[in-house]
Each structure stands twice: as structure tokens, then as C-alpha cells.
Amino acid sequence: MSEIASPTYYVDVEDKETRSRVESAKPGKTVQVRVRCEETPADGPIVAKGTRSMDSTKFHVLVKTSGRQWAHDEDWKELISKVSTYRD
Hints:
Blueprint: E1 9-11, H1 16-24, E2 30-37, E3 46-52, E4 58-65, E5 68-75, H2 76-85
Antiparallel strand pairs: 1-2, 2-3, 3-4, 4-5
């Protein structure tokens, strides 16, 4: 039986509210963010939770859909760099 690959989600830095929440996230605190599925980005954003690590090196993302959940870490500095490119 073949294994089904897990979807890959990324923080939607084009979303203004998500950018604001990521920028204001304090270490150890969880904020609501929007993510998109890399395989089907046209499907639109999904609400997820993101937590900045206590040492500010990672941003842990938890996505729950249809009774399943996926988690991954994004590099904090890379994420903030992406966020800054979309500032108004």
C-alpha cells in the first residue's frame, strides 16, 4: 500500500492580518494565522495557529483540517524577512 504524502502548508504572508499577527507574536505565544497548501494554493487560505519559539528561532505552525492535523516549523528570521517584503 502506498503512503499518502502530507500536504505542505506555508504562512500566507500576503494576508495583511497574518503579517500583523506574525510581527506582533511574542516568544512562546500562539497567534491565529492564515496558511495555504503548497500543492493547491488556489484553494484559498486556511486558518491555523502559529507559535513563536521561546528562543525566537522558529515559528511552529499547526494546521487542522477535516479531523486531521499537520505541524511544521518555519525559520523565524526567514519568515520575518518574507513578511517585511509585503509591508504596506
